[in-house]
Description:
The complex is a heterodimer of chains A (about 425) and B (about 190). Chain A is α/β, with parallel strands linked by helices. Chain A has helices spanning about 20-25, 30, 45-55, 65-70, 100-105, 120-130, 145-160, 175-180, 195-200, 210-215, 225-230, 235-250, 255-265, 275-280, 310-325, 335-340, 345-355, 400-405, and strands at about 5-10, 35-40, 60-65, 80-85, 90, 90-95, 140, 170, 190, 205-210, 220-225, 285-290, 290, 300, 375, 380-385. In chain A, helix 1 crosses helix 12, helix 5 packs across helix 6 (about 120-130) and helix 12 (about 235-250) packs across helix 17. The longest helix of chain A is centred in the middle third of the chain and has 19 residues, at about 235-250. Chain B folds into 2 domains: about 1-125, D-Maltodextrin-Binding Protein, domain 2, CATH 3.40.190; about 130-190, Winged helix-like DNA-binding domain superfamily/Winged helix DNA-binding domain (Arc Repressor Mutant, subunit A), CATH 1.10.10.10. Chain B has a 5-stranded mixed β-sheet with strand order 2-1-3-5-4. By secondary structure, chain B is of the alpha/beta class. Chain B starts with a strand and ends in a 5-residue tail after the last helix. Helices cover about 55% and strands about 10% of the residues of chain B.
Amino acid sequence: xxxxxxxxxxxxxxxxxxxxxxxxxxxxxxxxxxxxxxxxxxxxxxxxxxxxxxxxxxxxxxxxxxxxxxxxxxxxxxxxxxxxxxxxxxxxxxxxxxxxxxxxxxxxxxxxxxxxxxxxxxxxxxxxxxxxxxxxxxxxxxxxxxxxxxxxxxxxxxxxxxxxxxxxxxxxxxxxxxxxxxxxxxxxxxxxxxxxxxxxxxxxxxxxxxxxxxxxxxxxxxxxxxxxxxxxxxxxxxxxxxxxxxxxxxxxxxxxxxxxxxxxxxxxxxxxxxxxxxxxxxxxxxxxxxxxxxxxxxxxxxxxxxxxxxxxxxxxxxxxxxxxxxxxxxxxxxxxxxxxxxxxxxxxxxxxxxxxxxxxxxxxxxxxxxxxxxxxxxxxxxxxxxxxxxxxxxxxxxxxxxxxxxxxxxxxxx
Amino acid sequence: xxxxxxxxxxxxxxxxxxxxxxxxxxxxxxxxxxxxxxxxxxxxxxxxxxxxxxxxxxxxxxxxxxxxxxxxxxxxxxxxxxxxxxxxxxxxxxxxxxxxxxxxxxxxxxxxxxxxxxxxxxxxxxxxxxxxxxxxxxxxxxxxxxxxxxxxxxxxxxxxxxxxxxxxxxxxxxxxxxxxxxxxxxxxxxxxxx
Lengths: 414, 194
């Protein structure tokens, strides 16, 4: 007979990148590990944070920067959270209203025909509006400590738009973005699937750039637990990670994607039309109505290219953006903060149980590979995707402050 | 002290507001979503914001932790370190509090405690109502099943009830559920599924 089942309560937010948790539940990966998991849909990242730190949830789907920010005491009550696994790469996009897209096209038709699309047309619109004495444009993100916030800021600043001075950035819940855009309360936003594609499908906005174009394989969500919970439940944690690794691999099999879309679309999970969820998981996601994106864009990745591995260099990159935008003190010990939160050691142990190839290094230099490459520093060679940034920058986690100070626009005084 | 209640559940918000009427001096404003007061926040100038955890607006509130032109008074989550377990209890009750200025912890705590108790009360009221509705539905099913047994099998009311009770005991299920099954199967036999 099997051992007693372990009851767990895990939280998630209604976004397509909660897929590994949902698949583990619906396709039997938790069952196979003798885990009886109750998935709890939460209304906010603040709820996720508080419920995990206070023990009302055993673990949750989290924004990658969230454990770092909580541990550093800049987001809610300080606690010790760890990320032993990454749940996905890419998935978000920068979307603007149809009206702003038109204004950008009028101001800079050439810039609006180039891909990847930079924020230069936006810079022109911002300058025109200022000359006319109009209020600044408003953009929304889902949380201050999120890839979405950093991605939007990075993209704007590259073209000389200061995200703090030239536009207004506000926080809006993901599922409310579309309505606020339609109502004119916001002019654009950066959010994860399927809420970005939803607006395009309804013809109310355009996607200017996908995360996969901005940084070919950028980090996004993680699975997070408290350090204390991980220490008290080492075997349960391994069982959860094995289930999630198996589920992520299932979710990346192209033939499984239609079924994945159907599962995620359910009211219990993402609660969005199945065809909208499917568009961000299959084939070419759209830029605008009748304008499909490039075929083969790695729009949302769960498992390929070592996607589940919680790279310390991803944590350091998030920390450099927190420094850059004045969220944390530049004197913060960045290496120590990354090391305390991102736990590749735990991932490696779980992956070894499954015999899954795993990186043997904790960091990689980002932006070096313009084409596909192979990671040989792994238990078995791993096929990796190009990892370039759209502005051609490189990021070396060994020199975080130099990187953070190396941008023309930022709140860091070097 | 001015309190802003954000709760998509209007009945519950009213219950909290009513409970807060005893905490004086106090001015209570309630909305179902932060959007309703966003532009108006400087004028409303709440000292405490009580928000239901099921509202997606918590993240927006969290982003107001820095003072700026549109938001001259920063908003921070209220955590009372002198009352261990209070934050956990609040999360358990499904409510969070944010303070806008350096109010005394005791005054904020009394507001949060009222909100927590009213959230708990609302949950109990809803549970009671749900149970009452379920009981009523179950009683109706039993009556109909009895009537069916009386007409189809020629039993007396007493006999019909005893048969239902026996079926419930034999299968270890509530009598209302057995009655429902009987009605469903009888419907199928009569061809109601077509």
